Amino acid sequence: MSDTSYIFDVSGSAQFEQLVIENSFHKPVLVDFWAEWCAPCKALMPLLAQITEGYQGELLLAKVNCDLEQDLVARFGIRSLPTVVLFKNGQPVDGLSGAQPESAIRELLKPHVNEPAPAAADPLEAAQALFAEGRIADAEALLKQLLGADNENAPALILYARCLAERGELDEAQSVLDAVKGDDHKPALAGALAQLTFLRQAADLPDVASLKTRLAKNGEDDEAAYQLAIQQLARQQYEPALEALLQLFTRNRNYADGAAHKTLLQVFDLLGTQHPLVTTYRRKLYQAIY
Asked: pTM here?
């Protein structure tokens, strides 16, 4: 195991004062007292190193070879190996002796060591999560930064267009989608285009309350059922829209030249093949066809 800036050997009292005592005023220092002949020591050492590296500089690990550093062994009263001692503000504050599981070591460290900052999320993944939560403005802000560095990033362009569409900027969203290059992102592009289609269609349709009134009077009003499904899709109410489209397809698959079937496929593109609703309704559609 090679030493790093967080992990180092300590030789002699002077070096111990500098590398352990002085450093411990800035960051906790875990001291591993070990020996070459000690098998549990050699088993514990890689675990201590792994834990230390995981703290990304918030913890230091000093290794003391007890066969060579008898003065330090006597100074700290080390009676068994391995022994680990945690130093903070110049003083030993806790410790463990013998082979220890990872959980015990982490429990020792927990009150004294700052947790490392979480790794920065991928900007695109973060924007996708924000969009899924309905935080459109936050997603858009992240995407603008991403596109500022790479204005041909197809996934970012597609998601940015979807943000614009959700804000009603349909023409601008279309322009962004027109700028997407290559054929590697066809499903995502098809989904974004479907979203635009639903929003444009919904703008020209009767309002939801009127459509529901029509259906209450006549449950087989195919036009009202289809138009209500489009309104629901424009509002991201996917499950009721999918159910209504499937029922319409089952009842009258030829309505408006197969509009229910075509729209179901558009929704599948919009949501993506991994979405649980797509899995469920693709199976139901297959059963309805065959």
From this structure: 0.55
